[in-house]
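Supplementary Note 3. Input sequence used for the single-chain structure prediction.
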Amino acid sequence: METSHQSSTKQDILKYLLKEVHATALQLAEALKVSPQAIRRHLKDLEGEELIVYSSEQTGMGRPQHIYQLSGKGKERLRREVGDSYSKFTVSLLDTLTETVGRDQVSSILQKQWERKAQEYRQHLGKGSLHTRVATLVELRKAEGFMAEYHSVETSGSQTKDKFIFLEHNCAISNVVESFPSVCGHELEMFAAVLPDCTVERTHWIINGEHRCGYLIEASK
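The predicted structure, written as discrete structure tokens, is reproduced below.
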């Protein structure tokens, strides 16, 4: 029977590959602070479960090294673990509403929902520094199933501005987005409303085939 520690390490491997797209066994061992031997055992198990796949890359005269990445099944596993069943229910509900009141009316309802969500986020973020508010927003999104993080962006010049890259390595509402792509536009508007003293620009987009969604957040003054 698999121990909770083994299960946790395998989950960490899957999350790392979702975030970084691909990695070697040694890279995983270093990032997760687990011995290479243990990492290889976990990778073999995950490959057996068809959650990861690998390709071989020749570097020098030695043996080719394996480059691992998530399979479609592995990505689906992670989606399910962040509430995919709720997304399916939501899609079904929205489909029913579309049949009943029409797509334009559903779009208006979604707009109202994002406005309500923006108000909820603003209450949690308060009026602290931009750094503090972005950090709080990341934690809120994590709690909702988004693998979110942020990084400061270095700026030059005497009048530097607060600038951050806000990333989400998975979409907890991917099923909804597939059927109602306008949701992504509402999400961008929501982040802009949550941070009214900033400009918010989309830099990465899962729906365009990229492996994460990203936003550049910059203080307006």
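The longest strand covers residues 198-204. The longest helix spans residues 103-125.
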